[in-house]
Amino acid sequence: MLRSRYVLNFLSALLVAAYAHAVPASPLERIDGKVSYPERGVLPDDATLTVELLDVTRSDGKVKRLARLSLPGGGRQFPLAFELPYYPGDLQTGHRYGVRAMLTSGGELLYTTAQHEAVMTRGAGKQVQLVLQQVKATPDAALENTYWKLIAMGARPAQSQPGEREAYMLLLDGRVSASSGCNKLMGSYTHPAPSELHIGPLASTRMACLPGVMEQEAALLAVYARATRYRVRGETLDLMDADKVLARFAARQFK
Asked: Which of 157, 167, 134, 156 has the alpha carbon at shortest distance from 233?
């Protein structure tokens, strides 16, 4: 009896495997398009362009994502061509479909399409032209006379010594007042033209720091020495070398 049951289970497994092999997955198809945005130029190293295929049938505004393509920055030139693969088996007769694009940096949405561009719906084909528009929820903070708290250097989040002030930077009238998260920093800066910034030389106190904070201090001093440009978007400040983001700060109230 047990042997018969084993044979039946074995034969059932063979049939399932044979059926799965005989019915191949539906092949991928693609949507071709180009994305442009007002500033043109090169996609920054820390930015990501995301393109999505959506089912936009529902009248309540809720959408279902069917496919997603993410393109990291690093010299990509706008307008940017893309190929978005999708499974045609995910499409349903009578539904409406659209494509949207988003440009993010550091987790912040900077640009997006104003609406979903129709594809495979109401006579639309599989080619789209997407134009990004800037998202600006808050006015840009001022570079000078703003308390800038260090958020991260690259993928490394900021640290601070217990009992000491957080890492920050304040620029005012050509003078720098800052902290590495352990030692105080002071010196000068120049702001010769829009988007240009040169910090230093800087002096510091000589307090002993925890190993992780000491490494952060050395890296932060190197950032200040290397930075030649800056970018303020809303309440975020990026110190940059060409198009590479070296450190990111956030505007905060004085503490």
From this structure: 134
